[in-house]
């Protein structure tokens, strides 16, 4: 609060960490923290000290509540100041939300600390979407990932938030936020983890900025045309790169149809760029199929297909694109290129597709599905910085698959999420049958 000035400057949330880490770990210190803050604010005539004290109370009320023995006194103190102080009134609301939602696991994030220091008790956070658009949403200390997802779904008029997830991109990793986690807790945990993994140089701790993405993660109940906004903003833009990388088994005829629809999404009904198709094949045709026809043949076939759909809007073209891919077993898959040494009958380099059917091993050249492991057959899995390991069937007699990959953490998370959803659905169905 500045009553005893420090001999050195402390940056970021160093001071707030020092204050809040202990009470978050030990319940008994929470009352002590509130008592000390209230004591230092009572009769305090130093304006700067008082302002900083209220900033700390604001952070405290969003982190943990006092015990039931002290709650009444804390509320009386906050309400006695709320008529004349906007921050005190906000502290009352924050404390009520903390009582409902439970305490945080980590001290306030730097974003929260900087917000209250700038006298801003509303924090707006930008979320990015696959169609390259973005919007800002209010995020509170008590906001869990599930709440954030629902707010986005409501704003974008999606029919459901089911299957969608927040993803945080920090350094070279993109990590899904568990729906039950407090948003700022997860980001704080992730930032601390990255900092520990990348130690400071010359005594300077590296600062890591992060971006928040909102995307479809689990494609269990995704049917093109069922949720138009989801198709237009998310499904099309998430599926397009997978097609162009050549991950799906796609015939030349389907590739022509899809290319004409991709062209229509880009240019609408404007046919003036059709003569340039041979130069933009990488943006229209799967990478593994480009050499199947010469550029002029592609141009002629795609132009003919485009003219058949005259008058179709770009948004309708997106849905038409999805309806073709929906018929493939690999629709809605997350693809991973890995190396494996455990299955002698399969190529060393494999394409793994994780989708609602399970884990599918795909030949990297023919795109044939070599084998599919349904989630019910997978008994164990683990991952590290360089590997992903999975056991199929009995832990003792079952087969094992060991993959060399830097994306093991993503495969692990996706498998965990699909199996968790499967078990939740099974339990719901059992309950409904009993009723």
Jot down its keywords:
seven-stranded antiparallel sheet; alpha+beta; five-stranded mixed sheet; 435 residues; 12 strands; Acyl-CoA Binding Protein; Serine Threonine Protein Phosphatase 5, Tetratricopeptide repeat; 13 helices; 4 domains; single chain; 16% strand; Ubiquitin-like (UB roll); actin binding; nucleotide-binding
Distance between the termini: 58 Å
**Strand arrangement in the largest pleated sheet:** 9-8-7-6-12-11-10
What is the average of the pLDDT values? 92
Domain unit count: 4
Tell me the fraction of residues in β-strands, as a range. 15-25%
Q: In the CATH scheme, what's the topology name of the largest domain?
A: Serine Threonine Protein Phosphatase 5, Tetratricopeptide repeat
- Give the overall shape, derived from the CA principal axes: elongated
- Helical proportion, percent range: 40-55%
Main β-sheet, in a few words?
7 strands, antiparallel
GO cellular component, one term: cytoskeleton
Pfam family, one: IRS
Keywords: Actin-binding, ATP-binding, Cytoplasm, Motor protein, Nucleotide-binding, Repeat
Subcellular location: Cytoplasm
Structure, described:
- By secondary structure, the chain is of the alpha+beta class.
- The chain has 4 domains: 14-117, MyTH4 domain (Serine Threonine Protein Phosphatase 5, Tetratricopeptide repeat, Alpha Horseshoe); 124-216, Phosphatidylinositol 3-kinase Catalytic Subunit, Chain A, domain 1 (Ubiquitin-like (UB roll)), CATH 3.10.20; 228-325, Up-down Bundle (Acyl-CoA Binding Protein), CATH 1.20.80; 334-434, Pleckstrin-homology domain (PH domain)/Phosphotyrosine-binding domain (PTB) (PH-domain like), CATH 2.30.29.
- The chain has 13 helices and 12 strands.
- A hairpin with a 3-residue loop joins strand 10 and strand 11 (387-392).
- Helix 9 (228-244) crosses helix 12 and helix 10 (252-267) runs antiparallel to helix 12 (314-325).
- The longest helix has 27 residues, at 408-434.
- The model has no long low-confidence stretch (mean pLDDT 92).
